UniProtKB/TrEMBL annotation, chain A:
It is an enzyme of class 2 (transferase). Its cofactor is Zn(2+). It comes from Roseinatronobacter domitianus. This is Betaine--homocysteine S-methyltransferase. PROSITE patterns: HCY. Its EC number is 2.1.1.5. It comes from the Bacteria. Residues 3-293 form the Hcy-binding domain. Belongs to the vitamin-B12 dependent methionine synthase family. Keywords: Cobalt, Metal-binding, Methyltransferase, S-adenosyl-L-methionine, Transferase, Zinc.
Automatic annotation (TrEMBL), chain B:
The keyword GTP-binding does not apply. Keywords: Cobalt, Metal-binding. CDD domains: corrinoid_protein_B12-BD. Residues 102-233 form the B12-binding domain. This is B12-binding domain-containing protein. InterPro entries: Cbl-bd_cap, Cobalamin-bd, Cobalamin-bd_sf, Met_Synthase/Corrinoid, Meth_synthase_dom. It comes from the Bacteria. PANTHER family: METHIONINE SYNTHASE. It comes from Roseinatronobacter domitianus.
Length: 340, 233
């Protein structure tokens, strides 16, 4: 049996994913500190409006409002007993909007990190992480999600736990990590190392890639890293609309719709098949991205200088994939070790 | 090959042992650190010297390599864990001997923000560097900060926000401290993914800390400066 995303990928060179969830919900009146997932039950019309914003702007795929819908995060709102319900509702509302769109739109069940540090450094065991992701996955499945969408992960152990949970739920899945620390994830994983990790998974994702992180340029450098590491699965690029700036007491992302349109076309040239935004990416950005992808011809794979010239510089000089170059930082050498 | 050779910690000279402790911290070897701390105590080292010359010095190297993108969070957490093993032995002795404190920090994520992983990392690294840390958790209103500052009398207030929507609340807390005439009693450090130096200055913090390693370095520098000012004044 083929799933909806695989079918759509087979007929299209690129798919437009969605943009920000949090930024949009705050604009609709979500109070800081509240769990967005509770709105799946309490404010369904606003969640429909969120989804419609992406669909009407031309997204082929959108993520459900369930990013923090695992037991570990919901516990912070004393709602850990409602994981299945809130995920199911988030997906059901998505199904409704997608089916009413008059075209094929994929409902991707968002699964964000647990927010805990995994053993042995932290207290979250592999078994417990799998259990939490599995519980969430079953809720999303029951609500009619086409695919599970694991995102913003930093630890390879957590990514693997999510893969196992998707297998237990017998669901296709996609998974992206956030490369926000000098081109690596917070836990030090490089783009090339992610490709190797994904290759070794028993239950492979339909597509993998990067989301969030630091600005659109960094995200494209990561996408190039995937390609250069020989990635065989479709690549996902979901970058932030620029970088947040503090202006007159308010925060806004400095990425304009024009910049995100350039980013989208460059992402395709880098080799990404599923292209979207993350924080700060509003429907007007998505519209500009869709128009650019439809009207501009694909170009050659850009190099880092081209990316820098077109949409801005990088947050760090290197991203960990240049191991043999003179710029690469090295661990203190010749450390004495005790026999173990 | 030195890699193959079994190192008997008790056979090392003081200097060699301190070097070895720095290596063992770097490699996150908790039991070895605990053993070395006991050896130095038995040799008559003061708890304060062990803390500063071996443990804090070793963690400084770890912090620098973290800042420079050579080590990452997993290695740093293991190192901090090893440091904690040594600190558990030293802490009661430090109190007994009335040794000077590194400093105390109250830290919490601001109201509206439920993200805590960055704040937790800073707390762990600060403890690893020998600071006493009181963690207020997530979603703290200004009243909670005031209450914790009053109760704990820390040197440093640390605030974290991951969301662009919650970052401005840091300014609310700082403005309240100013209004109450308390601002200069504390070093205020802010951090969180979307922040930058410009923002830190704009809201009146002493410093913005890009990551946990920078937080530790900044805390050490500013606490030392504060002590100097107090001595001079």
């Amino acid at each position: 049996m083929t799933d909806a995303l695989t079918e759509l990928l087979a007929t299209r060179d690129w798919l437009l994913a969605d943009g920000a969830t949090g930024t949009n919900l705050f604009n609709m009146g979500l109070q800081s500190g509240d769990a967005p997932e509770l709105w799946n039950a309490d404010e369904p019309e606003k969640i429909r409006a969120l989804y419609r914003g992406a669909v009407d702007a031309g997204s082929d795929l959108f993520l459900t409002n369930t990013f923090g819908g695992n037991a570990s995060r919901m516990k912070l709102h004393a709602a850990e007993s409602r994981v299945h319900e809130l995920n199911r509702l988030g997906a059901e509302l998505g199904r409704e909007v997608a089916d009413a769109s008059g075209r094929r739109v994929i409902v991707a069940g968002s699964m964000g990190p647990t927010g805990e540090i995994m053993a042995p450094m932290g207290s979250l065991t592999h078994a417990l992480a799998v259990e939490m992701f599995h519980e969430q996955a079953e809720g999303l499945k029951a609500g009619g999600a086409d695919v599970l969408w694991v995102e913003t992960i930093s630890a390879p152990e957590e990514y693997k736990a999510a893969a196992e949970a998707a297998a237990l739920a017998n669901m296709p899945w996609c998974g992206t990590m956030s490369f926000d620390t000098a081109g690596r994830t917070m836990m030090g994983l490089t783009s090339a190392a992610m490709v190797q990790m994904v290759d070794k998974l028993a239950h492979k994702p339909l597509a993998f890639g990067a989301n969030c992180g630091v600005g659109a340029s960094d995200l494209l450098r990561t996408a190039l890293g995937f390609v250069e590491a020989g990635a065989s699965l479709p690549i996902i690029a979901k970058g932030n609309a620029g970088i947040p700036k503090y202006v007159d007491g308010h925060i806004h992302y400095d990425g304009t719709p024009d910049l995100m349109a350039d980013y989208a076309v460059l992402a395709r040239d880098c080799g990404a098949r599923i292209i979207g935004g993350c924080c700060g990416t509003m429907p007007e950005h998505l519209r500009a991205m869709r128009a650019a992808l439809e009207t501009r011809a694909p170009g050659p794979r850009p190099d880092l200088d081209t990316i820098k010239t077109r949409i801005g510089g990088f947050s760090s000089a290197v991203d960990g994939t240049e191991a043999d170059s003179a710029d690469a930082p090295t661990r203190r050498g010749n450390r004495r070790r005790r026999e173990t | 090959m030195s890699d193959e050779e079994e190192i008997i910690l008790a056979n090392l000279s003081d200097d060699e042992l301190v070097e070895q402790m720095m290596d063992d911290l770097y490699d996150g070897l908790r039991e070895e650190i605990e053993e070395s701390v006991r050896i130095l105590l038995a040799r008559g080292w003061t708890p304060y010297d062990i803390l500063t010359k071996a443990l804090v010095a070793g963690m400084t190297i770890v912090g620098h390599d973290f800042r420079d993108g050579i080590l990452f969070v997993p290695e740093v957490l293991l190192a901090a864990n090893a440091m904690k093993g040594g600190m558990a032995i030293l802490k009661p002795l430090l109190v007994e001997t009335g040794a000077p404190r590194m400093g105390k920090m109250v830290i919490g994520t601001v109201k509206g923000d439920i993200h805590d992983i960055g704040k937790n990392l800073v707390a762990m690294m600060m403890e690893g560097a020998g600071f006493e840390v009181v963690d207020m958790g997530i979603n703290n209103a200004v009243e909670a900060y005031l209450e914790a500052l009053e109760r704990e009398q820390p040197d440093i207030l640390g605030m974290s926000a991951l969301l662009t929507t919650t970052m401005p609340y840091m300014k609310v807390v700082i403005d309240t401290l100013v209004a109450k005439g308390l601002r200069d009693d504390y070093i205020v450090l802010v951090g969180g993914a979307p922040l930058n130096e410009e923002f830190g200055r704009a809201i009146g913090a002493d410093a913005y800390c890009r990551d946990a390693a920078v937080a530790v370095e900044t805390a050490k520098t500013l606490v030392a400066r504060k002590h100097n000012q107090m001595t001079a004044g």
